[in-house]
């Protein structure tokens, strides 16, 4: 198997005072009160943190490439504030490995975006080091990836789909700029011979989690030599269309 992903998460910690209060005042079971505690007091921050870390985590795994391993296909790094959790060793079940790293959340939320990215990479490195030591992996591979992330100034940009026009004069690509607060998905049209960008047109701006939006992007299709469309994977009637005019001007139409 291959190591396919690295995820960073905040661990849920029960607010016992809140749970006891709603059990008493709302006549809820312990399980119901715990779910309400998570929804009301934790979920928003967990989702936000989970989105923010993806720009660096995706860049890291892309640069890592196909890392073959007999132990795990995904490392889940739980960022905790409880020092006792750090005493546990990596645990693997069904191809998923869990490790714990310490984080100062109050400091993290007040950082600039670039400083947040540095913390995210730091926590990835801490988690990877635990797993690498546990399974005797070559840590130099991960050091190389970490250095490359820093050398790129934590910028994560990638192309998802490419397609040449029927007359072979142009090529279109779906280009993603994956940042900490949002992802921008653009249609880029290039001259096929010179690779010159003729037009870059923003199609979608969404929350920065590739597991949310990438599965929705369907076929990239040239309707003619002058018209290209990106079709929603599950809603074929929804599409983004860019038309190439004779003067090399583009008009984007949304359906």
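Q: What amino acid sequence fits the structure above?
A:
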């Amino acid at each position: 198997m291959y190591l396919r992903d690295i995820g960073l998460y905040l661990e849920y910690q029960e607010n016992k005072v809140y749970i006891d209060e709603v059990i008493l005042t709302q006549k809820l079971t312990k399980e119901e009160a715990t779910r309400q505690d998570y929804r009301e007091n934790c979920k928003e921050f967990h989702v936000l943190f989970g989105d923010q870390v993806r720009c660096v985590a995706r860049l890291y795994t892309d640069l890592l490439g196909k890392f073959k391993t007999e132990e795990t296909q995904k490392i889940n790094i739980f960022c905790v504030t409880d020092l006792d959790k750090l005493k546990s060793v990596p645990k693997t079940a069904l191809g998923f490995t869990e490790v714990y790293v310490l984080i100062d959340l109050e400091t993290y939320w007040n950082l600039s975006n670039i400083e947040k990215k540095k913390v995210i990479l730091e926590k990835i490195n801490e988690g990877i080091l635990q797993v690498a030591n546990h399974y005797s992996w070559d840590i130099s591979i991960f050091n190389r990836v970490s250095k490359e992330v820093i050398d790129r100034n934590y910028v994560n940009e990638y192309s998802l789909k490419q397609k040449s026009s029927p007359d072979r004069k142009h090529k279109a690509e779906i280009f993603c700029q994956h940042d900490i607060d949002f992802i921008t998905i653009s249609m880029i049209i290039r001259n096929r011979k010179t690779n010159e960008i003729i037009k870059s047109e923003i199609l979608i701006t969404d929350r920065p989690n590739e597991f949310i939006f990438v599965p929705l992007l369907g076929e990239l299709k040239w309707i003619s030599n002058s018209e290209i469309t990106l079709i929603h994977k599950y809603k074929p009637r929804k599409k983004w269309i860019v038309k190439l005019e004779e003067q090399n001007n583009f008009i984007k139409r949304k359906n």
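Q: And what stands out in the fold?
A: The two ends are 41 Å apart (CA to CA).
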